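Researcher: Here's the sequence for the chain we discussed earlier.
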Amino acid sequence: MNILRDEMEFRLLKLATRKLLNSFGSLQAAAEVCRVKPTNLSQYQSFEHTAFMPIDVVIHLQRAASSTVLSEEMAKLGETNTISESERGVRDEALDIPVAVGQLLAFVCEATAVESAGGPALSENEKRRYFELRNNVEAELRELDAAVQQDGSLVRAKKA
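Model: Thanks. This is the structure I predict for it:
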């Protein structure tokens, strides 16, 4: 079940950006081959910032690194948009798990914060919500198990 596809795509692109930038050894080295500063490059790979690299920066960095990692990830995401729910593979299902776990962890942190309505103890409503989110994590794991059983591979076949 891929409820937060946009968030996962966001994370995948940020991770691919990070991989591209890591090939330079430092953000300063990467900045020397493109038009943006190291601080901007840092933001492009950060989950905390919504900005992505301009396409001309991607092209310059990929050429300099002899790597098309970011373009390849964008192409995969384009392919994924054409896959129906029944055609989702292991990779697609696996990428849903961190989202579900993240929702659960964010809820726990928020619900147990000292300044929250119930303080560090969970109210009955918060307990119900916790178990809803926990069940969602279990459901995502079951869907991944089913995909592994069906595909037997962690690599999704390319569409013809």
